[in-house]
Each structure stands twice: as C-alpha cells, then as structure tokens.
Specification:
Helix 3 (40-50) packs across helix 7. By secondary structure, the protein is mainly alpha-helical. The protein contains 17 helices and two strands. It has a two-stranded antiparallel sheet.
C-alpha cells in the first residue's frame, strides 16, 4: 500500500512535520542501545525487541500532539522514548501470557531467550522508561508522571481482564470494549495528551485529544482482531489465527456468538478445546458465513468516526490538525 506524501515525510506544510518526518527524527534518537552490556543475556534480551522495528506510533503521536500546539520541546523526546519503552515492556509480558511465538515477524523475546530472562528484560524496559521521564523539566514532571502512572495501571488492568475473559463463557460487548480501552487505547490516548501538556494545551483541548486517541485505539483494535483472523501474516507480522488458537474473545468471537445459529455456537464452543491445525480454518469458516468480516469493518468505522469528531472539536486551526487526521486515516486503511 502506498503512503501519501504527507505521511511518508516528503512534504512539510506551515511548519508542521508529518508522521514520517517525526518518525525519522525519533528513530534516529531511539535507535541507540538503551542498556548496558552486562549481564549480556539480560540486556541483549531487553534490546532485542527494540531493534525489531515497529511503527513507533505512540511516541510519534506524542511529538505530533506537542507540535499541534507549540514548537517541539526536547522534553517531548524523553517522554516519547519512555512511552515506546513502556509499550515494548507490555509486549514482552503479553507475549509470554499469550504464548505467542512471533512478534513483528521475529521470534518473541521469551521464545529466543527463555521466559525468566524475558520477564526480567521487560522489567528493565519499564525501569528505563521512568529514567527517561525523570529527565524532563519540573514544570511538566508531575502532570506527565501522574498521567503515565495512571495509564500504566490501566494497561495492566486491561491485560488482566483479557486473561479472565478467556475463561468466561460469556462476555458482554460493552465490558469487552472497556477492556480494550484499558489494554490498548489508553496508552495511545495518553501519548497524545502528554504531548498536548508539553505543548501548553488547555484542559478542554487535552480532553478532546485524549478521546480522539481512545476511540482511534478501539478502531485500531477492531482492525487488529480482523487482521489476526483474516490478514496476511507476512504483512501483519504475526501468525494468522493466533487469537483463535489462544481462545481469545475478540470482537469477532463476540459477534459470532451473538449472530450465529445454535449449531454454529456449539461448534465454536467445541473448537475452543481443540489445538489442531484445522481449528483456525473451521472457526474462520463460521465467521465468514456470519459476515463477521463485514461487520468488523463497520464497527471500525463507527469508532473512527467518533475519534474524528473529537479531533474536529480541538480549538486550533484546521491545518494544525491535518497531520494527525492524515495519520489516522492511513492507520485505518492498512491491509483491511
């Protein structure tokens, strides 16, 4: 899929930098080794996932939010680095809990280094995140740290709910959306709000930017669920059907259990106890017969539209919103 010039960094309008431009700047700063050399096994494991790529969406959104309101501050790069380190910390631990073999097309940290080392490697990433936050100006430190801490707790709460849902027979749709908001969306939302704080935005603008990020995050998760089931694993970077094999109650599963026939519901329940290679294909067959793929696209659009309403309400000129608007549209078009 081609990326528009405003996304890939070939254009710069009215002094505002595109996602591509800010991403390149952040990547240049972030690509250093973040950890000592010894103990080698521990710190190589910590560095491993950081060098495996990733779109750096959350930290760059922090930079974009800062620039929406004011000139980029050096503190924004420290906060962005902390966000990316924290995000990767959650991925390392999530992959252990989910028994995931691949991340970004590479063996997961626990697969390569073993679970005990992976746990410690994740812990070190979290500590490093706080070390970066500790470098920012006292003018912002308390507000940023409070938001970062509350967000970190919410992400852990969301992960716990996600694990609990795996053992529950029925999960309410609204409860599932709450879990996704905690596990996935709040970090995206907080990244934007932290950038807005650094840019001097008022409470109202911060609130709209947070809601923009939260609803965009939910739309992104709907798409993530879709791609896990229906996407190309070479493009998506994860093994197809991982959520199905792990019996995760995704948006797709909840809708299938809502609209499928009694026979299909029974088949889905029966498939949850299987681990053979045909499991994914049989679940997808039921999903397709219930038009779950089409429904997921409509649900994604619903939350995306809510996000764009909040972006529109932010009290800055339209041109200052353009980079985030274009990025949001691009994210919603990836391979779906």
């Amino acid at each position: 899929m081609s990326i528009s010039p405003s996304i890939d960094g070939k254009q710069k309008k009215n002094g505002l930098q595109s996602f591509g431009q800010l991403s390149a700047i952040f990547e240049e700063k972030f690509k250093k080794r973040h950890f000592p050399d010894e103990p080698q096994q521990l710190y190589d494991a910590s560095q491993y996932l950081l060098t495996a790529g990733g779109k750096r969406i959350r930290p760059v959104m922090c930079l974009m939010a800062n620039e929406m309101f004011d000139e980029l501050k050096e503190d924004a790069y420290e906060v962005a680095t902390a966000i990316e380190l924290f995000h990767n910390f959650t991925l390392v631990h999530d992959d252990i809990m989910d028994r995931a073999p691949l991340r970004r097309g590479m063996p997961t940290v626990h697969t390569k280094f073993g679970e005990p080392t992976a746990l410690l490697a994740g812990d070190v990433m979290l500590i490093a995140a706080y070390e970066n936050l500790n470098k920012i100006s006292n003018e912002y430190l308390h507000r940023i740290l409070s938001l970062f801490n509350s967000t970190a707790k919410k992400v852990c709460e969301g992960q716990q709910l996600d694990m609990e849902f795996e053992k529950m027979e029925h999960v309410n749709f609204d409860t599932y959306v709450k879990m996704i908001s905690l596990k996935t969306s709040v970090l995206l939302a907080a990244s934007l709000q932290m950038g807005a704080i650094l840019g001097g935005a008022g409470a109202g603008n911060q609130g709209h930017l947070y809601e923009f990020g939260k609803n965009l995050g939910i739309a992104f998760q709907v798409q993530d669920d879709y791609l896990d089931a229906f996407g190309n694993p070479e493009k998506f970077g994860k093994k197809q059907g991982g959520d199905i094999m792990a019996n995760k109650k995704t948006f797709l599963w909840l809708q299938a259990m809502e609209v499928s026939s009694d026979q299909q519901k029974g088949e889905l329940r029966g498939l949850s106890s299987r681990v053979d290679d045909n499991k994914i294909e049989e679940v997808l067959s039921i999903y397709k017969s219930c038009n779950i793929d089409g429904w997921a696209k409509e649900l994604k659009q619903k939350y995306f539209s809510i996000a764009m309403v909040h972006l529109e309400e932010i009290a800055v000129t339209s041109v200052r919103k353009k980079p985030l608007e274009e990025l949001a549209k691009y994210l919603m078009e990836r391979d779906m």
